[in-house]
Amino acid sequence: MIRFEYNHDNFDRNSSSNHNLSILTGMDSFIFMITDESGAILVLKDFFVNNTPGNQNQYILSIQDLFKNEALLQLSYKKVIVEISDHKFVFVPDRLFNASEAAVYLSQATTLAPNEQIAHTEFQDLHSNLVFCFPKELADLIQSKHPKAQWNHIATSLQQSYAKNQAYQPTQFIGLHFRGNLEYISLVNNGVVQFHNCYGVKEAQDALYFLLLVADNVHANPEETPVVWSGDLVPEAEILKLVKRYFRTVQPLETGPFQSSEMQENKYPDLLGIIS
User: pLDDT tens digits, residue range 70-92?
Assistant: First the structure.
């Protein structure tokens, strides 16, 4: 089921090899965006995908159907980046990181399924490598269409988005980003992420609890540290009403001059963050 669609008049399918394709998938989301060389958005489609816990096959079948029915996903692109939204990840300090041990690092932090593929990416702000995973069936499916696809994690793209938009944000703030039922919380100072973690939530009260827990752990004074929100939230969201009871300043993430009034400005900083 499609939740949002944006198409720019200037997009020419015959020139797709000059453009970039960015995909965000995980939990109940599958979003893809096509951008030109300047980073301008040409196409953005946001789908709800059935992802019942314990039924990964249904999720993979849903993705297969999207690739079968969405002609734009079958075109060739200059660069393809696939971004994973998932709570299974771990930071390993650069000085200790050994790529051949990536699976070991992750298995010590979370339970891995037999068919999960391991990847890692640099997380410069924390001087670490971020190790994450995704279903092998998903990798096989996407790489069958785009063999040179690069794999990324949403935490890295949020880091890049906060850095890119530093001029538009408070000097220090807590970044609150939602994708599905995952809550990503970051402490950002002068565009640099000093803390990042992800929490699975079912209710607004759960999300508030984790936010207050992080604020306490990183010694962020609610009277002085703004909360900057983005992702799958709207201004009237229950969680934002609760947050405003505890934090003096709660505001949406600003991304500078935006390209379309049809899109909520702070809806997709995760995808926008990986545009080079």
Answer: 999 999 999 999 999 999 999 99
| Paired strand residues for 127 | none
Q: Say how far apart CA 234 and CA 217 lie, in whole Å.
A: 27
In whole angstroms, give the CA distance from residue 1 to residue 67.
Answer: 14
> Any idea which fold 166-254 has?
Nucleotidyltransferase; domain 5 (3.30.420)
- Each residue of 239-256: pLDDT tens digit? 999 999 999 999 999 875
CATH superfamily membership of 1-164+267-276: Protein of unknown function DUF3822, N-terminal domain (3.30.420.250)
Q: Please tell me whether the overall predicted TM-score, pTM, comes out greater than 0.85 for this model.
A: yes
Cα(20)–Cα(44) distance, integer angstroms = 12
Which one, of 197, 205, 269, lies nearest residue 232 by Cα? 269
Three-state DSSP string of the chain: CEEEEEECCCCCHHHHHHCEEEEEEECCEEEEEEECCCCCEEEEEEEECCCCCCCHHHHHHHHHHHHHHCHHHHCCCCEEEEEECCCCEEEEEHHHCCHHHHHHHHHCCCCCCCCEEEEEEEEHHHCEEEEEEEEHHHHHHHHHHCCCCEEEEHHHHHHHHHHHCHHHCCCEEEEEEEECCEEEEEEEECCEEEEEEEEECCCHHHHHHHHHHHHHHCCCCCCCCCEEEEECCCCCCHHHHHHHHHCCCEEECCCCCCCCCCCCCCCCHHHHCCCC
Which segments of the chain belong to CATH 3.30.420.260? 166-254
